[in-house]
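Attaching the record inline, Q. Sequence:
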Amino acid sequence: MERHITAPINKETAKELRAGDYVYLTGTIYTARDAAHKRMYEALEKGEALPLEMKDNVIYYMGPSPAREGRPIGSAGPTTASRMDKYAPALLDLGLTGMIGKGKRSEKVKEAIVRNGAVYFAAVGGAGALLAGSIKASEVIAYDDLGTEAIRKLEVENFPVIVVIDSIGQDLYETAIREYCKL
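Structure, as predicted:
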């Protein structure tokens, strides 16, 4: 199914999505990669506030290349999501509704997705320049010292993703393999 939804994404909308759905996101999402996730996790362990509200938000695992003149961002392709698996359950438990990356997720992340009625999307790897075209604005909001791994607030329009793990635990990577093997 093809869906057009607005981010932030509430739990009700996330629960309507199913593995395999094509989704076009419009609205506000955030970027964070390994170093930013580590820093946020350490802040949580110390009882400190996070630099962004997790509730209903979407984090895109991406570190952009420098923007060309007149563009808000450079190439903006996804990074491997499993590198954030250590940190994702804690953020999901705080209300994070969506994550965008590429590749499989751990069982602990899948359990946290189901427990929290969230969703994991995949963006097409190797298509960073194309994906950047859906990003209309980019602003560093935290951890500027991390360079490309700083947390950014992005305004996106029709940003294309695919639901990989839905709120009931269906995993497209697993179901697609089973379907392929039947052929």
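The mean pLDDT is 93. DSSP finds six helices and seven strands in the chain.

More tomorrow.
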